[in-house]
């Protein structure tokens, strides 16, 4: 996938368009650089989007939004999918193989929430996880230190998961807290890390402004995730997306210390500090006492762009691996893949069975 002349499918084109358009709408400091390798795609396919977007018309922006939540079936291009699966095998398909490396190591589990443990739903307040999934996470946490790493605020993601034995990293890792019950003796349990604390008054101020500015747009939903504000497009009619994006940008132009990123039908506003899910997992591994350990195998499972920072950290450490949850081929730093939350649940269940069998054999 590093050959720039490779033919790209519609899905890839759509993703490329999303990335290119998002980068183009980046009138100076509003957007953070994309973590994706956009040189893979032919940029000159989308000059109109770029021009329109930079002219402030947001045409590329709408394409980006549409493409960020792909609805196309993978059957549209089976060969492309086969190639992608060869490159990022199913973590269930190669389970025994990948876990054989973990026998003598401490496995640490990092889990994104939305789209990983819960399905993506119309109303983000109703992104509940299934009881079976909660059970699977609970069982995993009996054997392995387990952290939820989410874009949502810590309190909100805790309310969905409701397992006190886990670590929680909310607001894309900017608000980290250790478990309230003690399961694992190693490392510091009383973890609390808020690297962007001084931004809190600003975030509250911008939240109020966004509420005010977006209230005329039907379906727009501004979510206060403490260190990250999310403007959801999911329930907004497509013809109003440009208007909504414009309104969000008009608020942000007065706040150069905040940056705007785009997720699956969501715009997110965060402090411009060098902190992301990747930094969060490094912090957690250190807190757990595994900063320089060779005996640790971190596994990170996530479905969105922001999870790429974590996948990248694991690649760079040469320790553990990322698993991308996706039904469609995507450029990713993850090593393995799973199709949907149901497969994530199966993977977690197999981890528990695997660990129990190892414990029995010793
Ligand atoms: Mg997610």
Which properties best describe this structure?
2 domains; Alpha-Beta Plaits; binds magnesium ion; 362 residues
Kindly report how far apart the N and C termini lie: 43 Å
Task: Give the CA-based shape.
Answer: globular
- Rg value: 20 Å
What is the CATH C-level name of the largest domain?
Alpha Beta
Largest sheet: 8 strands, mixed
CATH superfamily of the largest domain: HAD superfamily/HAD-like
Mean pLDDT metric: 80
Number of domains: 2
Strand tally is: 12
Q: Look at the helices and sheets and give the structural class.
A: alpha/beta
Beta fraction:
5-15%
The level of helicity is 25-40%
Low-confidence stretches: 1-59
CATH topology of the largest domain: Rossmann fold
Oligomer: single chain
Count up the helices.
12
* Order of neighbouring strands in the sheet with most strands: 5-4-3-2-1-10-11-12
In CATH, the architecture of the largest domain is: 3-Layer(aba) Sandwich
What is the element string, with H for helices and E for strands? HHHHHEHEHEEEHEEHEEHEHEEH
């Amino acid at each position: 996938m590093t050959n720039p002349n490779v033919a790209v499918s519609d899905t890839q084109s759509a993703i490329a368009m999303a990335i290119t358009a998002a980068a183009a709408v980046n009138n100076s400091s509003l957007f953070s650089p994309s973590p994706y390798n956009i040189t893979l795609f032919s940029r000159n396919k989308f000059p109109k989007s770029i021009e329109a977007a930079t002219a402030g018309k947001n045409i590329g922006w709408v394409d980006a939004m549409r493409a960020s939540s792909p609805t196309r079936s993978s059957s549209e291009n089976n060969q492309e999918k086969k190639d992608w699966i060869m490159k990022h095998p199913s973590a269930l398909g190669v389970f025994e193989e990948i876990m054989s490396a973990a026998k003598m190591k401490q496995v640490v589990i990092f889990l994104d929430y939305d789209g990983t443990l819960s399905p993506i739903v119309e109303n983000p307040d109703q992104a509940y996880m299934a009881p079976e999934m909660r059970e699977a996470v609970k069982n995993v946490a009996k054997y392995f230190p387990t952290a939820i790493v989410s874009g949502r605020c810590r309190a909100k993601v805790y309310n969905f998961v409701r397992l006190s034995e886990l670590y929680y990293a909310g607001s894309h890792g900017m608000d980290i807290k250790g478990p309230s019950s003690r399961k694992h003796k190693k490392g510091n349990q009383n973890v609390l890390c808020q690297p962007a604390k001084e931004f809190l008054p600003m975030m509250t101020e911008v939240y109020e402004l966004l509420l005010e500015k977006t209230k005329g747009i039907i379906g727009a939903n501004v979510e206060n995730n403490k260190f990250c504000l999310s403007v959801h497009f999911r329930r907004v009619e497509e013809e109003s997306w440009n208007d909504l994006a414009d309104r969000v940008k008009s608020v942000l132009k007065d706040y150069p210390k905040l940056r705007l990123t785009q997720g699956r039908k969501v715009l997110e506003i965060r402090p411009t500090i060098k902190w992301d899910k990747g930094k969060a997992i490094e912090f957690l591994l250190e807190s757990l006492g595994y900063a320089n350990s060779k005996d640790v195998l971190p596994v990170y499972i996530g479905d969105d762009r922001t999870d790429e920072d974590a996948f990248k950290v694991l690649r760079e450490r040469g320790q553990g691996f990322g698993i991308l949850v996706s039904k469609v081929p995507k450029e990713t730093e993850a090593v393995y893949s799973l199709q949907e939350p149901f497969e994530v649940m199966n993977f977690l269940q197999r981890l528990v069975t695997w660990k129990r069998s190892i414990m029995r054999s010793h």
